[in-house]
Design goal:
three-stranded parallel sheet; 11 strands; 323 residues
Amino acid sequence: MRFLDLTWKGVPMRYFDLHCDTMTECALKNIPLRRNFLHVDLDTVQGWERYVQCYAVWLPDELRGEPAWQRFLQVAERFSQEVEKNAGCLRQLRAPGDLDSLEESGRHGAILTVESSAVLGGRLERIQDLRRLGVRMCTLTWNGETELGRGVLAPGNTGLTGLGRQAVPLMEEAGILIDLSHASPELFWDVAEMARKPLVASHSNAKEVCAHPRNLEKSQFEAIRNSGGLVGLNFYKAFLNDLPEKACMEDVLRHADYFLSLGGEDTLAMGGDWDGADLPADMPGLSAIPALYELFLRHYPEALVEKLFYGNAARLFREQELL
């Protein structure tokens, strides 16, 4: 069994990650969450003091309507099975107080999220179904267009649809954070204008550092910061470096430096995009987190690093009374 000593100067390291596609991989390929070849493996985190992972149900753009809903149910069922099978070390977080009790128990916290509002199939009543199943965050799109709005790689210049304008307040009322990673610029600003809750981009980097269209403009990051929201640093090579083949762990630090220069001390978090992205050679999966943590500690005070790796994300979910 692999074991990583996640301590620094005798202080246990804590890690909260806003996005992975691991559970979707587990469901579609029948891979266990423990003892696998994926970026996220429960054996890797044995001994970690505190670790919380958002597990996204990813819906590709070719899935719409009832097939998208059925894919969600398939992955959500696998999520439930993995939580039950690994109950000794894994717990789903879905209600206020769950995060506090998790920290006392030392177990790994699992949060169910969705990547693409195609899950709704255009039916707003399904928002309550998502809430009932414990979903706590949902992107409005993947790269294409959904019934709620346009993704960043879809042609056109549109943002929220009429149905999307109805869905935003309903999702907020249901305690589901609206995730603006993958949103077109128009969709981003439509949501920013009407949202009453903090904005989140769970796995997006800085366009100033890497010009990929999936990354955030300065003004977008500032809007998220001003809302009290979160931006999770993405470890995908193409979002880290304009020359993806040269991407490395140092690039994560470059994006963090830029966001911190914009006053992002309370905004920045981690959103690795595990099992949904091609990673740098020196970041093969969760096993790279201790080295990344140490790299950040060589550049920033320990209190700031703790906020980036755990505290900021934990604070938002608590403040919004989601966990």
